[in-house]
Write a structure and sequence with these properties.
The chain is mostly helical. The protein has nine helices and no strands.
């Protein structure tokens, strides 16, 4: 907290007036970033004409941005996933929000998804969890791009009936 207070130009006591712990402060910062991310994503999705465009927007805003952050900051993995109970809960809530929004977007394709043995919720969870895991498992940005293209093709194939 000393380093953070010094960087912010305030006393440590001032930080503790607003935040009871480092985890609570991290959770507040995470929530701010998540809210900004969701606003950007909704704005971009409103301009999309197809599922493919929505997937591309999600990958750019959520996956590539996080990948670049993690690559540039050695301790970012812990920051992104949360370091304590409070920040970890914020990270889980963000994942659930993304899954809920994808489920809503994919509802249009529910009939085709059921035909293929899936559902909008299952595919939403697949998009969010696979994309999130690729951030940490891709060997490079180029590899990430290839893997996300495969994910996109898979989702599009699942939404086609027939």
């Amino acid at each position: 907290m000393n380093d953070i207070a010094s960087y912010a130009g305030v006393s440590r006591q001032t930080l503790y007036v607003h935040f009871k712990s480092k985890d609570e402060m991290l959770a507040a910062a995470m929530q701010h970033v998540i809210d900004d991310f969701l606003e950007k994503l909704e704005t971009q999705w409103n301009q999309c004409d197809s599922l493919e465009e929505q997937l591309t927007a999600y990958f750019e805003i959520a996956i590539f941005t996080t990948y670049d952050f993690v690559e540039a900051n050695p301790d970012a993995k812990e920051i992104v996933r949360g370091v304590g109970d409070i920040s970890a809960a914020v990270a889980r809530d963000a994942e659930e929000t993304k899954i809920r929004r994808w489920t809503e977007l994919l509802a249009t394709y529910e009939e085709a998804l059921i035909e293929s043995g899936s559902s909008a919720h299952a595919v939403a969870k697949f998009i969010v969890s696979t994309g999130g895991n690729l951030i940490y498992n891709a060997e490079s940005r180029k590899d990430l791009k290839t893997l996300l293209q495969t994910l996109k093709q898979s989702v599009i194939a699942l939404t086609r009936s027939g």
